[in-house]
């Protein structure tokens, strides 16, 4: 019997920017307001040998202080503005930093294709006693040394500070500084006021992403009647091509992307596995990167959320009885409606309503398959393991790239045990 996994944390400290930075209130756009949730990610490196003076802990602390000069809002604290919105008070207090030691080798973390939220969770520091988002600093870092000589960087970041693209730009810029590459190749663009709502707001679309769905299938009962289990399903190039061909075999669609085919399949399979009532409305949500869809395009290295949630709504019975092309076409329509007008409308809709996306009857797909987690390099090469600690909500599914060529997509999801068995059955039929 293997010994218990133990991580011993030292007392947290604050790492402030290495130079004086701008103080005062920092504006967050309406695209930042909707996703104020904590996202936890981990990067594990096989070697942390002392290539540089001071070792891993000192390198990470010193480079963090330097990168916070460029990303100074991460050293501040979240507040509620007079308009009752989230805003950052740039106090310069600093990011929370925790040194830790693990009593095990990092290969004890398990199968990287099936992340263990409990084991990986030990590599991320949570603020004890925090009652709400305002009591959690925007950036919390834990650096853990393994007994094998490797180390992990565990990040706890608030999504309101940046989307996945922006977060990876931050991590990779931090890595540049840790490797002594100064000045930064791509400093962040800080002005979020370019995505301010119009005055007065002019929403042009219904924005069904915020729609409240009537629960006619007793979702609470479905989820509580059986143990929740989490699985990761690997879709290699052959399976992905099979899905695309299946989506187009009835001639309704001329073409479809990998994302559209995979999203349509997962939505259809999950709806079937949950055995929802035919008249139950179901909603699909996913984020579309607006960086190149805004007119004019927003600047490179924009520091903030440039993603907009798009949606599709239909009845569970329609999803189940129709061929895959039906679900895939709904995904395509949701992608195509996101243009500059739609995104400006979404910004204005929140300004006028302060609505939050409802997750009842909803599947929220987060596609991280194109994010370069594997590119993070603090001086010890690429991480052997990298990615999210787990799923933030039971309605969320993650798409993650996998394999040396990053051609596989792992789909990570959670379902009640009985429903997961049916989802596994539908997955096995893709051949």
UniProtKB/TrEMBL annotation:
Keyword Transferase: yes
Keyword Transferase: yes
TM region(s), chain numbering: none
A matching Pfam family: Transferase
EC identifiers of the protein: 2.3.1.140
Any one Gene Ontology molecular-function term assigned to this protein's record: rosmarinate synthase activity
Domain of life: Eukaryota
Keywords: Acyltransferase, Transferase
InterPro entries named in the record: CAT-like_dom_sf, Plant_Fungal_Acyltransferase
Catalysed reactions, as listed in the record: (2R)-3-(3,4-dihydroxyphenyl)lactate + (E)-caffeoyl-CoA = (R)-rosmarinate + CoA
UniProt record similarity statement: Belongs to the plant acyltransferase family.
Protein's UniProt name: Rosmarinate synthase
Organism annotation: Genlisea aurea
């Amino acid at each position: 019997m293997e010994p218990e996994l133990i991580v011993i944390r030292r007392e947290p400290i604050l790492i402030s920017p290495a130079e004086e930075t701008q103080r005062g209130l920092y504006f967050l756009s309406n695209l930042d307001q909707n996703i104020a949730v904590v996202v936890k990610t981990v990067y594990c490196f096989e070697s942390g040998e002392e290539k540089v003076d001071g070792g891993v802990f000192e390198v990470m602390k010193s480079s963090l202080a330097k990168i916070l000069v460029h990303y100074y809002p991460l050293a501040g604290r979240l507040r509620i503005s007079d308009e009752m919105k989230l805003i950052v008070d740039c106090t310069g207090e600093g990011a929370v930093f925790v040194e830790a030691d693990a009593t095990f080798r990092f290969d004890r973390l398990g199968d990287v294709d099936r992340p263990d939220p409990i084991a990986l969770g030990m590599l991320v520091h949570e603020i004890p006693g925090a009652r709400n988002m305002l009591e959690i600093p925007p950036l919390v870092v834990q650096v853990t040394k393994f007994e094998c000589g490797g180390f992990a960087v565990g990040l706890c970041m608030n999504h309101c500070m940046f989307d996945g693209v922006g977060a990876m730009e931050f991590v990779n810029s931090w890595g540049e500084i840790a490797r002594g590459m100064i000045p930064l190749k791509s400093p962040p663009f800080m002005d979020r006021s370019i995505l301010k709502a119009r005055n007065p707001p002019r929403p042009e679309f219904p924005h069904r992403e915020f729609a409240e769905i009537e629960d006619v299938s007793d979702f609470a009962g479905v989820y509580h009647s059986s143990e929740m289990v989490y699985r990761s399903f690997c879709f290699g190039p052959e399976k992905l091509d099979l899905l695309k061909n299946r989506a187009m075999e009835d001639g309704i669609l001329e073409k479809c992307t990998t994302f559209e085919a995979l999203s349509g399949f997962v939505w259809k399979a999950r709806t079937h596995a949950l055995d929802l009532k035919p008249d139950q409305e179901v909603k699909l949500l996913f984020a579309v990167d607006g960086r190149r869809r805004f007119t004019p395009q927003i600047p490179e290295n924009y520091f903030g959320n440039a993603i907009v949630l798009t949606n599709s709504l239909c009845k569970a019975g329609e999803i189940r009885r129709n061929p895959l092309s039906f679900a895939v076409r709904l995904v395509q329509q949701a992608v195509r409606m996101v243009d500059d007008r739609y995104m400006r409308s979404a910004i204005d809709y929140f300004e006028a309503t302060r609505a939050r996306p409802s997750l009842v009857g909803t599947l929220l797909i987060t596609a991280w398959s194109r994010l370069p987690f594997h590119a993070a390099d603090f001086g010890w090469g690429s991480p052997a393991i990298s990615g999210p600690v787990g799923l933030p909500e039971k309605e969320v599914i993650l798409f993650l790239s996998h394999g040396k060529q990053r051609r596989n997509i792992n789909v990570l999801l959670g379902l009640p045990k009985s429903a997961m068995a049916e989802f596994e059955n539908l997955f096995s039929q893709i051949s």
